[in-house]
Design a protein that fits this description.
The chain is an alpha+beta fold and 175 residues long. It has helices spanning 44-59, 97-116, 141-163, and strands at 17-24, 33-36, 39-42, 63-70, 74-81, 134-138. It starts with 16 loop residues before the first strand and ends in a 12-residue tail after the last helix.
Length: 175
């Protein structure tokens, strides 16, 4: 079965700019966070995913990590790539979004396998992520604002979906 690629056909994913990505766990397994008293609490795997995302800029040139959210079965992140104003910018070291995500997924995959299989004495392999990821090229400041709002409010949207809106609502949130 040939699947259609979610990437833009003729777009260069090392084009300077901002991107928002979404990566889902395989079979939407809830291994990144759990519900505790109506709130999301990151699991050990979820904490490693967050730490790995925070550290990407140390290992990939011309990369600035922005807001992100680790959800029970998926991850959202915003990243700036190859912008001349980034600290330590090098024109000869352009980062490609697809390569960045591949590196992130590979590293977190190894960590998840260590946590969920090896430490428990298993000898199998735990597949953390779906093969694909979804991206959006952020077009302008308004789009960036909306992307940040979406990512930051994702945990709240999850809570509302699970428990409804409490009497009196949430401060600063319009529904």
């Amino acid at each position: 079965m040939n699947r259609k690629s979610p990437r833009l056909k003729y777009f260069d994913y090392s084009t300077p700019g901002a991107y928002v990505i979404t990566i889902a766990t395989l079979q939407r397994r809830k291994v990144l966070a759990v519900e505790r008293s109506g709130c999301l609490e990151l699991t050990e795997v979820g904490r490693e995913v967050a730490e790995c995302w925070r550290g990407l800029g140390r290992y990939h040139a011309n990369t600035l990590i922005d807001h992100f959210a680790v959800m029970p079965d998926h991850f959202h992140g915003i990243v700036f790539l190859n912008l001349p104003w980034l600290e330590g910018y090098r024109a000869d070291r352009q980062t490609n979004l697809c390569n960045l995500v591949k590196s992130f997924k590979n590293h977190t995959q190894k960590l998840a396998n260590e946590i969920l299989v090896v430490r428990r004495g298993g000898n199998g392999y735990f597949h953390l992520w779906q093969k694909r990821f979804y991206d959006t090229v952020i077009r302008d400041e308004t789009h960036l604002y909306r992307a940040r709002k979406y990512v930051l409010q994702n945990p709240l949207a999850w809570r509302i979906g699970r428990f409804g809106i409490p009497e009196g609502g949430y401060p600063g949130v319009e529904v």
